[in-house]
């Protein structure tokens, strides 16, 4: 069964075509600069060479039509007809409290996703555009919504509630939701497969570190806490996001600088994080270069703060779960940043982490155990595969559960 996975951003569409249940990748690529000048589609030819196809792509419908055209083209095609695509899985960032699992898209599901726009105003609208476009282009083909937030709906109330007037929670749904759920789900499950652990009994701390970053405490296959909150700005120091911040700091800045709510939102989302600390870049590779080769004190400070914040969450989650069997690094920084991994794990010996510095430096973006064989707590790198999770859920809902019903 061929399943197309779509991840629609405000001006981009990531896609992947997989054959399920074998999980064989048939094609992947990305459309960028939708609605802007210089829009293009990036993919690979049949020999695996990278190819960029330029063209005017004015909206998401045109972008998806472009993707489908490439998938069945003579030069790049992997299907002879669009009828071979039997389901489409969509990444949807926010499902609120309504969705504790992925869902086949119906008119009622669409309405519920639309209700969550206030909770994810930058993400849910393009996600919806992708769903509606595919419903028009491939009518009758099942569309499946897979929510970033669903995996974290297993959190207990004492983890997800904020200490604000309870009426505000009831009125607006203000609580911790968490994100990167499909990533945390995949890498925690995959780590247990590699280590031979029972996923339903293991205690895992998953660190998804990229431009956006979050940590999840996963106890017995269920998320019991996570660092991101109502929005993706809470928790870790990120590329441009402030992460955890005294609320009084924000109101103080707003008063002193005489700035609006919108400007303050831009400040904590796009001008803070490692970019704000260093004034150089949001890319950890640039920060490491400045710190180690040029001796930039602010770059070193940013690295120290970044590692320290992660370390605090790991310690806190280990206590919350009453122990930890494995710590996982994933995401662009987690998979490639050996310096970050070493910095985070330095000092965790008391927890039973016997870190292997030589192994840690010897690879990039591969599945590896980076602790010594006798380490009580295993530390691993597991490259994430959110598209596979979306395809698996799409297959489960459209085939497996449909047959069982």
Describe what you observe in this structure.
Helix content is 40%, strand content 20%. The protein is built from 15 helices and 14 strands. The two termini are 19 Å apart. The chain has helices at residues 60-71, 107-115, 124-137, 157-160, 166-172, 181-195, 247-257, 261-270, 273-278, 284-293, 297-321, 331-336, 338-345, 357-360, 386-404; strands at 2-8, 12-19, 24-32, 40-44, 50-54, 85-92, 103-104, 143-147, 203-209, 213-219, 222-226, 326-330, 368-369, 378-381. The chain has an eight-stranded mixed sheet, sandwiched between helices. A six-stranded mixed sheet has the order 11-10-9-12-14-13, sandwiched between helices. The protein is an alpha/beta fold and 405 residues long. It is found in: Cytoplasm. This is Acetate kinase. It is an enzyme of class 2 (transferase). GO terms for molecular function: kinase activity. It catalyses: acetate + ATP = acetyl phosphate + ADP.
Task: Put the structure in a nutshell.
By secondary structure, the protein is an alpha/beta fold. It is 40% helix and 20% strand.
Task: List key phrases describing it.
15 helices; Aliphatic_acid_kinase_CS; alpha/beta; six-stranded mixed sheet; metal-binding; 405 residues; EC 2.7.2.1; 14 strands; single chain
Global outline: globular
What's the gyration radius in Å?
A: 22 Å
Overall strand count: 14
Portion in strands: 15-25%
Count every helix, treating DSSP H or I runs of 4 or more residues as helices: 15
Record the strand order, biggest sheet.
Answer: 5-4-3-2-1-6-8-7
Query: What is the mean predicted local confidence, pLDDT?
Result: 94
